[in-house]
Write a structure and sequence with these properties.
Strand order of the largest sheet: 6-5-7-8-4-9-10-11-12
Radius of gyration: 26 Å
Largest sheet: 9 strands, mixed
Number of helices: 11
Shape: globular
CATH class of the largest domain: Alpha Beta
Number of domains: 3
Bound molecules: thymidine-5'-diphosphate, magnesium ion
Helix content: 10-25%
CATH topology of the largest domain: Rossmann fold
Distance between the termini: 85 Å
CATH architecture of the largest domain: 3-Layer(aba) Sandwich
Number of strands: 21
CATH superfamily of the largest domain: P-loop containing nucleotide triphosphate hydrolases
Amino acid sequence: MAKLKRTYFCTSCGYETPKWLGRCPACNEWNTITEHVVAKESQSSRIASVPKAQPRKVQDIEELATRRIDLGNKEINRVLGGGLVPGSLVLLGGEPGIGKSTLSLQLALGDNGLRTLYVSGEESAEQIKMRANRIGIANSECTVYPETLLENIVAQIEDIRPDVVVIDSIQTMHTDTVESSAGSVTQIRECAATLLHAAKSLGTAIFIIGHITKDGTIAGPKILEHIVDVVLQFEGDSNNTYRILRGIKNRFGATYEIGVFEMHDNGLTAVENPSEILLSHYDMPLSGISVGAVVDGLRPYLIEVQALVSGAAYGTPQRSTTGFDHRRLSMLLAVLEKRVGMKMFQKDVFLNFAGGFKIADTGMDLAVVAAIISSYYDRPLREGVCCAGEIGLSGEVRPAPRTEQRIGEAARLGFKRIVVSSFVEKTIKRPKGIEVVFISSIEQLPAAVMQE
Ligand code: TYD
Ligand code: MG
C-alpha cells in the first residue's frame, strides 16, 4: 500500500503549502487552497531514477550545439526563437476555442518531414480526422492517439519515437500514480513531470496544451510555467479572426517575438504583414479614424484606431474601449480636457482597434488622441498621416520605444507623414518619402494631424 502524503495547493496560482490556509499568501485569493493526496512512493521512485550530476567548472562544460527542428511554419519557428529544440517541453496556453488544437494539429499534419504524435484527451479519432481533413493532411508520419492515461501515452512515445508530440490538453490527462481526478493541480504537476522526463530522456519535443481562464491567469497551467522550457500564449478575440502567438518564456531564446495568424475555414494561416490587413481603405476620408504605429515584441505594424465622441445622453458619460486600457483612456481624456480645452466631461467616448487587437503599447497614445480629436470636431485627419508617441500627465509627448522602426514601417506602407515626439529629433534617422513631424506637447497635435 502506497504511503499517502497530503499537500495543499492554491487553485489560482499553484502555491503549495503543507497545511490548509484560508487565504493564499502568494496571490492573496481567499478560499482557493485545496487538499491533494499524493502517493509518496511514486514521487521518490521518479526522483531516484534521475542520474546524479556532478558539479563542474563552467569552462570545462562542452557547449551543446542546439539543433533546431524546422516546424515548417515560419511564424511558429520565429516565436520559438528559430525552431523547436529537440527534447524541449513547450506549454501552449490560451482560452478555450481560440485555436490551440487547430494550431498544434496543423503542426503535426504539416509538410515538415517530422514524425509526429497528436494525443487528444478531448476528441475521438474520428473527430480529429474531420478536423484534419479541413486543415489538409500533408504528413504521412502523423499518428493520432485519443487517450488520457499518461502511462499509455508514454509507452506509445517510447514505441513510436516521434520527433514532436502534442498533448491536447494537460487538463484532460491523468496518471495512476496519484489519486486525484484529472485536471487537479496534483495531476497536472505529476503528468507534466512525467512528460518532462520522457522529453529529456528520449529527445522528443513535447507541446503541452493548457486551457487558461478568462481573467488571464493560467489556472492549473500556471504551475507548469517553471517546469517547462518554453511558454507560448495564443491570444485574440474569439469574435474576430486574428490571433497572436506570443512567447512568454523561452530557455533557448528571446521572448519578444510574436506570430500573427488568421483563422480560416481550413485552419490558421500566417499573416506576414499585419499592417496590410489592419488598415482599411476608404473611398472617402472619415472622421474619428487615425492610424498608429505599434511595436509588439520586435514587430512593428500599423493599426487603425476608431473613436466616436458624442454628446452624453445621460448624466454620467460613457467610456467604452475594445482592446485599449480603460484607465489609460480616462487619463488621456483628462489631459485633453486640461491642455487642449476640449469639453470631454459632457461626452460619451467609444474606442476601437481594428481586428479586435488588444494593445498595451503606450506608443499608441498619440493615435488614440488623434482619433478622438478628429471625432470631436467631426473632421477627418489629413490623408496619409499616422502617429507614434506616448502622452504624459502634463500633456508632454514622450518618445515611443523603437520610434525609428515605427517610422520605417510607416514609410514602407506609403504613409506621407508621421507625428512623433521631439525628444528623438536629433537622434533618429529619417527615411526618404515620409515627412517626420516632431511635437513636444499634446497642444501641437491637432495642427500636426488635421487638414489645413
Ligand atoms: P480549437 O482549435 O478547437 O480551439 P481550442 O483548442 O483552443 O479550444 O478551435 C476553435 C475554433 O476554431 C472553433 O470554433 C472552430 C474554429 N475553426 C475554424 O474556424 N477553422 C478551422 O479550420 C478549424 C479546424 C477550426
Ligand atoms: Mg482544443
